[in-house]
Structure formats: structure tokens, C-alpha cells
Amino acid sequence: MTGFFEEKESGATTDREQLKNMMEIIQPGDLIIVVDLTRITRSTKDLFQLIEDIKDNGASLKSLKDTWLDTSDDNPYSAFLLTIFAGMNQLERDLIKSRQKEGIAICKGKREVRILTKKQLSVFQIDHTLIVLWNLRTLKHISGVTH
Q1: What is the pTM of this model?
Q2: How far apart are CA 84 and CA 60, in angstroms?
Q3: Alpha-carbon distance 78 to 60, whole Å?
Q4: 43, 93 in Cβ contact below 8 A?
Q5: CA 96 to CA 120: how far, in whole Å?
Q6: What residues form DSSP beta bridges with 14?
Q7: Cα–Cα distance list, 23 to 53, 87, 103, 117, 129 (Å)
Q8: Measured between alpha carbons, how far is 147 from 131 in angstroms, rounded to an integer?
Q9: For residue 111, what pLDDT is reported?
Q10: pLDDT greater than 70 at residue 134
Q11: 55-97 pLDDT, tens per residue?
Q12: Tell me, what's the pLDDT at 113?
């Protein structure tokens, strides 16, 4: 089988349409190539389950960025590195969520910042915000001011 699945959603969850579509059609001997391990999932548990499901279907997984990742053979070093990097990816995801939660709590406590989604902002507002942020970054860079 030859197919191409482009995922736009975050690797933070396995509940993704393209991932499900791929898992439904993989066959023995198929090779699944990913750009980066974190694009599949950042959850250690989900990653191990996904790799088990891929192997159960007789397929294998390789990563372009993580060149050590190759499940086509039972290499103990690949399994070891997979465990280490899966744990690091999980830690990274947990830290992001923690910092995000702390930032939201601080903003809500100060009542200085209203959290908006992209759908609540007009194109003009988004462009204006990006210009202001770029100018602020440039000003800090020129003046050498850092926090």
C-alpha cells in the first residue's frame, strides 16, 4: 500500500482523523514514515500502544528526524531509545500544559488579559498584534533589553 497522510492536528492526542484512517488500512509489510516522533503522539502510553498496533498489523515505523527509530527489526537499542525519547516527549508535553495553566491562572488573577481564540479575532486584529509583537522584539533586540 502506498499512501500519504498529512496531519494538521497536534500530536497531543491520538483522536485524529488522519491517524485513524492510516491505522484502518495498514497491511503487513507496510512501512510508516513520520517526520518526527512527536508528530505521532507525545504521550508515552499512546506511543507504545500505537507502535504495538502497527506491529500487530505486520507493519513497521521509521522516523526521518529520529533516525534511530526503526521498528522493522527487534533491535534492543531502538527499544531502549524509544523508551527514553517517549518519556522526554511526555515530559515536554506535561511542562507545556503546566506552564499554560500557570499563565492562565496569573492572567485571570490580575484580570489584565482576556484570553481569546483565533476565531474571536479579526484578521486585522491578528495582523496588528503580530506587528506590535515584532516591533517590541526588534526594539528589545536593538536596545539590548531582556527580561
Answers
A1: 0.60
A2: 19
A3: 13
A4: yes
A5: 23
A6: none
A7: 8, 23, 36, 31, 40
A8: 20
A9: 65
A10: no
A11: 999 999 888 888 888 888 878 888 888 888 888 888 888 888 8
A12: 57
Q: Which three cell numbers stand for residue 55?
A: 506491529
What one-character-per-residue DSSP string does 19-71 give? HHHHHHH--TT-EEEES-HHHH-S-HHHHHHHHHHHHHTT-EEEESSSTT-BT
The closest alpha carbon to 48, from 30, 31, 56, belongs to: 56
d(CA 74, CA 84) in angstroms, rounded, equals: 17
What share of the chain in percent tops pLDDT 70? Answer: 76
138: which 3 cell numbers? 526588534
In angstroms and rounded to an integer, the radius of gyration of the C-alpha atoms of the chain is: 21
Q: How many residues belong to the chain?
A: 147
